[in-house]
């Protein structure tokens, strides 16, 4: 019956929970932009204070970049690590936002109220579902269930450079029986999913340089190497006409989909048309030989995420630029080795750089794909707990995104992660007008109370 | 002997001439950026006042964009139109400037003093050589030679949208026996050239759009069309491996080089290695079947001048952008028709836009190549006058750059232009740290006094 009391506490406290989330969203913790370093730290301090409210021993832990926030409650029962990230993506193009990204508002959406702000969904709104569930639990029980450790990172949106060293340096402190992460989406409206496989990520930046200065295309056009041409020629060759990545050996370690899993995924009735239609698209543009779900969950990709070179502002400038640059990410699956692929990619680029040009590389993260061992009973307990909260029963699914930490928890701390999240596919994370449904927030808090009740052994 | 008196006057007045140029350079007249519209107008007013000092009836003439400045002196003798432009290129990347672009300084350069500022060479410093020659002439003679009309434009660096309508509306006022323009470079150090053929220019901007918002490359990578991929694939196909432009019909109207001209150009002893070496390059990157001089003077080109898409700032953002864009210019020769090529280019792009993507085009100027009829004796008179001023005799040359107005003077006003300029190839026009040699400025002023003396019939 104490679960019911906790759920009731959550319902009564929803407005206060929302107020706390809005305070958190007002802090522009853009980790990738050094101009926001101070604000990013403020977000960490804000979270630390939340954990102290829960009775946890909480503190900021310095790293070469943004600090980690940790908290421990101690106590009997199963040991659980909850992870979230308090940093957010940049907001450009700012002109496409309908309201200021760091002045959150709760407003009417197409189907219910939404919280609109950068980070509303990814990951501030989502991580606060767990923190608020704990707050309600404590209000009812006087303390938290099980033995909970909190770990909040401030560099998830900028490649997590401090994460591996931190995990390795604090293995004993951070290793628990199980990890929980709230940074994924509902499988579909009304139906939660637990992600049991995630794609890995390899991030690379290449800068092509030619002349030692920008040149006038009248004086030098036709005779001087143009780095934008060189860059476009290289990038254009990254995928063939069928969507297949052309790097030699790229598909080594990519498994064919297990028939049992394939049958499960078929049973999900994935609506590719609706998924693409929601963002103005109509046709799967990936490898034509694979189903839409495979294209986003179990097939690797190469995507250009950014490109720049020369003058791209208003008007026109007849310049041959000294350099051009692009950022490229690869989503990885199965046993693809990000470090080996980085070298393959760089060799492949170098082989195409013509005379008079040079190339420089910068790395932006490398994490393998990961797969959970769902024979731990907690996975089925969590699935049932979610089903009790939402209109439809929860399903085990794949995810196209990379949550490298789930892989590191396996490889460094030897623990699996239950990835349950309440975002919707129309949350526009990483885009202008990001939002989080109030229903996601509310049911999300209730979901964690149910999961804690089911798995913590309290 | 009055020529000698004028030259002496120029020598004595050099410091005052420099001071006036520095005042002009302090006005940030960046025509392509609407934020500088007010400053651009100030530059026009400043020039108008200079012309009034010369006794010309001078005024600002409104256009839909930046104003024209015109001035007339009347008087007997040959009628001459002098054209220059008072607008300048943008200054980015600002961090590569060693001094502020609009705080001009006169400083020691590698070989003599230089004036350093945006526009020091292109075209403020150059056009002021003519204005200062007139000022000295007037000081000695009391009035200007011949019958001079001045025309200064403020949109040359942004596609000259108002130019053709203005020329057409004021044909009678502007048509003279001959035009003079000072916006070109010395053929080489110590040796001036008169440009008798210029490449034309076609400017195009293409914007590729896919989803109706930026997407997360985790959720959508592999299934959603990526406009940067589409753009790079299209642009990569613009030239083949030999440097040849692949647009169908692109080479229609491109003449083979006349054997007489080819022999003349061979006689120039063009130092391609030195030309490229000065900017950190070593190998001609254009059509391999043509000489370096042909690559820059008589062969057409396709160059990408700018590209943008996704997140290209510090750090990394795993975004699939909603759009990607590029600016492309074609240098044209012979009878290539820019309007026809614009349509060919657009059709060629449209045919490559895949499902779920759209393309938008913006035009940025279209001017054909031009060729002067040098049987007018003024050309040879000017060549000899230049030879008297500089260490080496002047030569008739080609130019890779586009000075569309020289073509319009032919097609609309029926007059040829003597293009004589004193820039050096290391002036870094359109680049950070633009400069103009004090020697170019000084000898440039003296050169115009000599040319006016030779051709004005004074």
UniProtKB/TrEMBL annotation, chains A, B:
MF GO annotations: metal ion binding; peptidase activity
GO process terms (BP): proteolysis
Domain of life (superkingdom): Bacteria
Listed Pfam families: M20_dimer, Peptidase_M20
Sequence ranges assigned to domain Peptidase M20 dimerisation in this UniProt record: 198-356
Alphabetical keyword list: Hydrolase, Metal-binding, Protease
Keyword Protease: yes
Record's keyword annotation contains Aminoacyl-tRNA synthetase: no
PANTHER family: BETA-ALA-HIS DIPEPTIDASE, SUCCINYL-DIAMINOPIMELATE DESUCCINYLASE
This protein's name: M20/M25/M40 family metallo-hydrolase
């Amino acid at each position: 019956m104490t679960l019911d009391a906790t759920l009731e506490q959550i319902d009564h406290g929803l407005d206060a929970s929302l107020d706390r989330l809005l305070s958190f969203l007002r802090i522009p913790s853009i980790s990738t932009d050094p101009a926001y370093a101070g604000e990013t730290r403020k977000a960490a301090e804000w979270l630390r204070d939340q954990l102290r409210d829960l009775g946890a021993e909480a503190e900021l832990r310095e790293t070469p970049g943004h600090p980690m926030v940790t908290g421990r409650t101690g106590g009997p029962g199963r040991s659980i690590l909850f992870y979230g990230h308090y940093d957010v993506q940049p907001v450009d193009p700012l002109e496409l936002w309908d309201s200021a990204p760091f002045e959150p508002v709760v407003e009417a959406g197409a189907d219910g109220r939404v919280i609109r702000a950068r980070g509303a969904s990814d990951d501030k709104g989502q991580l606060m579902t767990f923190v608020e569930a704990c707050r309600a639990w404590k209000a009812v029980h006087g303390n938290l269930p099980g033995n909970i450790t909190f770990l909040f990172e401030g560099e998830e949106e900028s490649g997590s450079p401090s994460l591996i060293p931190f995990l390795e340096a604090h293995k004993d402190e951070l290793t628990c029986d199980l990890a929980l992460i709230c940074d994924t989406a509902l499988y579909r409206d009304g139906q939660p999913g637990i992600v049991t496989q995630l794609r890995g990520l390899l991030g690379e930046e290449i800068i092509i340089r030619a002349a030692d200065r920008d040149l006038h295309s009248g004086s030098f056009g036709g005779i001087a190497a143009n780095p934008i041409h060189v860059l476009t020629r290289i990038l254009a060759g990254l995928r063939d006409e069928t969507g297949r990545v052309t790097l030699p050996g790229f598909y080594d370690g990519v498994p064919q989909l297990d028939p049992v899993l394939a049958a499960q995924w078929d049973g999900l009735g994935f609506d590719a048309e609706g998924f693409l239609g929601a963002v103005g698209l109509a046709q799967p543009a990936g490898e034509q030989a694979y189903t839409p779900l495979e294209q986003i969950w179990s097939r690797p990709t190469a995507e250009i995420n950014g490109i720049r070179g020369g003058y791209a502002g208003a008007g026109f400038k007849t310049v041959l630029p000294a350099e051009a640059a692009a950022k490229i990410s690869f989503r990885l699956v199965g046993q693809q080795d990000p470090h080996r692929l980085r070298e393959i990619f760089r060799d492949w680029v170098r082989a195409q750089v013509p005379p008079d040009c040079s190339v420089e590389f910068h790395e932006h993260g490398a994490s393998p794909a990961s797969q959970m061992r769902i024979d731990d009973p907690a996975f089925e307990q969590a699935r049932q707990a979610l089903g009790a909260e939402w209109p439809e029963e929860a399903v085990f699914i794949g995810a196209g995104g990379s949550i490298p930490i789930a892989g590191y928890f396996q490889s460094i701390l030897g623990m699996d992660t239950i990835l349950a999240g309440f975002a919707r596919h129309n949350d526009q994370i990483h885009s202008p007008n990001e939002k989080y449904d109030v229903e996601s927030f509310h049911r999300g808090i209730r979901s964690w109370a149910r999961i804690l009740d089911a798995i913590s052994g309290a």
